[in-house]
Design a protein that fits this description.
46% of the residues lie in helices and 14% in strands. A hairpin with a 4-residue loop joins strand 1 and strand 2 (110-114). The protein folds into two domains: 5-71, 434 Repressor (Amino-terminal Domain); 89-235, 2-Layer Sandwich (Beta-Lactamase), CATH 3.30.450.180. It is built from twelve helices and five strands. The protein is globular. The longest helix has 15 residues, at 148-162. The protein has a five-stranded antiparallel β-sheet with strand order 2-1-5-4-3.
Length: 238
C-alpha cells in the first residue's frame, strides 16, 4: 500500500462510526484542523497521535498492528508485503494444537499455514489459501459456513477498510473475487464497527454432518515475533 494509509483509515473509521471531524476532535481533544490534515496526509503521524486516535475510535488490536506497520515502517520490523515461510518450529507449534488453527496474514486474510484440524473442518483450505477467495469462489464454503453471508461480509469489509489504497496484490485478489455475484454488494455495503469482530462462527462439519459453534481467537506472536496472527477456532463447551 502506498500513499496515506493512516489518514485514509482514520477517515473510513470515523465515517463508519458516524462521527464528524468536530465530534472526533471533541472526543480525543485534538483540533479539527489537525484531524483534517492527518486524514488528508498533509501532517505526519506520531506514535502518540496514532494511539490517541485509535483509542478515540475504539480501534481493535488487529487493525492497530496493521496500520501501525503501514504508517511507521520498521516499527514492527516487518515490511508490509513480506510473507515469510514458517520455520519447522512454527509448523510444529501449529500441528500441536488440537483445534483448527492457522497463521493468518492481515489485511488480505491469507492463511500462511494451517494444521490438519483446520483442513479437515474447511474442505479446500490448505497452506496459502485466501479466506475471502475461498468463501466466494469455493462452492463448499457455502455449505460449510452456516452464516456464509455474515462471515463473507466481515472479511470483505475488513479488507476494504484496511486497504483504503489497495496495492497490486490486493487489486489482484479483488479482481479474482469479482467473479462472485455477491462481491459488489458485500464490498460497497458498510458494516457496523461492532459487527466487524464477531467472535463466534457456526460450522457444518462435513466429516460427521454435525453443526458446531466455535470461538474465533486471534493471538499476536511476540516471541519469536512474526508478521502473522495465530487464528484459532475453539469449540464452545455446551
Amino acid at each position: 500500500m502506498s500513499g496515506n494509509p493512516f489518514g485514509a483509515y482514520i477517515r473510513l473509521q470515523r465515517t463508519a462510526s458516524g462521527l464528524t471531524r468536530e465530534q472526533l476532535a471533541a472526543r480525543v481533544n485534538i483540533s479539527v484542523s489537525l484531524i483534517e490534515k492527518i486524514e488528508l496526509g498533509s501532517r505526519p503521524t506520531t506514535l502518540n497521535t496514532l494511539k490517541t486516535l485509535f483509542d478515540g475510535l475504539d480501534v481493535p488490536p488487529l487493525h492497530r498492528r496493521h496500520i501501525l506497520n503501514l504508517s511507521l515502517p520498521g516499527v514492527l520490523n516487518h515490511p508490509a508485503d513480506t510473507i515469510p515461510e514458517p520455520t519447522p518450529d512454527d509448523l510444529a507449534d501449529l500441528a500441536s494444537l488440537p483445534h483448527p488453527a492457522g497463521f493468518l496474514l492481515i489485511p488480505r486474510f491469507t492463511l500462511v499455514a494451517v494444521n490438519e484440524a483446520y483442513r479437515t473442518l474447511f474442505p479446500g483450505i490448505t497452506n496459502g489459501t485466501n479466506l475471502i477467495e475461498w468463501l466466494l469462489l469455493d462452492p463448499t464454503a457455502r455449505s460449510t459456513v452456516v452464516d456464509w453471508h455474515g462471515e463473507a461480509h466481515r472479511l470483505i469489509y475488513g479488507l476494504r477498510i484496511l486497504t483504503p489504497t489497495p496495492d497490486s496484490h490486493t487489486t489482484e485478489l479483488i479482481t479474482r473475487c469479482r467473479q462472485s455475484p455477491e462481491w459488489d454488494h458485500l464490498w460497497t455495503t458498510a458494516l457496523p464497527p461492532q459487527s466487524l469482530f464477531h467472535d463466534r462462527i457456526t460450522i457444518h462439519d462435513p466429516s460427521n454432518n454435525q453443526v458446531h459453534q466455535l470461538n474465533a481467537r486471534l493471538y499476536s506472536p511476540e516471541f519469536p515475533d512474526r508478521p502473522w496472527w495465530l487464528h484459532r477456532l475453539i469449540p464452545i463447551q455446551e
